[in-house]
Amino acid sequence: MDYFIQNITELIKSLYVDERCVKCNNICCAKLFQQNFKNWTSGNNDIDKIIQDTQLLDHSQYARYALEWIPFDRFCNIKCIVKDEFGRVYIANWIDGRINNLDNKNKNWIRKDQNMLVVLKYFDYSKDGILRLIKKITGFYKVYGVSQDSETKNYIMVQDDTCEKCNYICNVTHFQRNFKNWTSGNDDIDRLIHNTQLSSHRNYQISKALEWIPYDRLYDIKWIAKDKVYRANWIDGYINKWDNENQNWKRKDQNILP
Ligand SMILES: [Zn+2]
Ligand SMILES: [Zn+2]
Ligand SMILES: [Zn+2]
Fold first, then answer.
1. What is the Å distance from ligand 3's center to 54 Cα?
2. Centre of ligand 1 from the C-alpha of residue 22, in Å
3. Cα–ligand 2 centroid distance for 195 (angstroms)
4. How far is CA 103 from CA 34, 65, 121, in A?
5. Do residues 239 and 201 make contact, with C-beta atoms less than 8 angstroms apart?
6. N or C: which end of the chain has fewer CB within 10 A?
7. SUPFAM superfamilies under this entry (predicted)?
8. Is the Cβ–Cβ distance between 208 and 193 less than 8 Å?
9. What is the value of ipTM here, to two decimals?
């Protein structure tokens, strides 16, 4: 019996030791990621390697710097926000949410922010595309992982919904989320307006952002000159700053002749 118990103890010990990372002598994220390598593939060796390398470097309990492979069906409400010469950008809800920490008893992840808003950036699978990806990963803002559009087979970077320049949700983020809700009907005009909005990160820059104003937001339209200039009252007024409480723009000078 003693012999049996001793054997069992040894067995448990060996299993326990086996769970620990040889590098940090702990039950760390790298260890759990490594045990999961067999459960996923991006379908591309280079991309698998990039993701695995970031995972093997993370000996913390929080996986803040590791990338995940995120199956495309873990996103919902996918909406295009930009479609221009630089590629397509979507926003979507990530059903599972980000990893918050390691549950080392159950060998699983504890996640947070279920259905959080993320930005999906399509990138070309090419040497350049991969290099850009690596550069982004080592940048200062959060990339959660990589996914693949199940229809087009394009690879996607899954990023935080914050501005890349400011590293927080700035005016550009708010303008971008609204791109899908309007169009002038002319691609060149849309692009011109987009560009002015995409360079209005801070409030002092916002006066340079152009808006698409539907004709029905103007009234009392008067023809004032022969060169087809009209005066009108603008019902909404101009954008002053973002109002976090109402999740909308705070405007000024409603109904004042522009
Ligand atoms: Zn470790
Ligand atoms: Zn655009
Ligand atoms: Zn910004």
1. 27
2. 7
3. 7
4. 15, 17, 30
5. no
6. N
7. NHL repeat (SSF101898)
8. no
9. 0.59
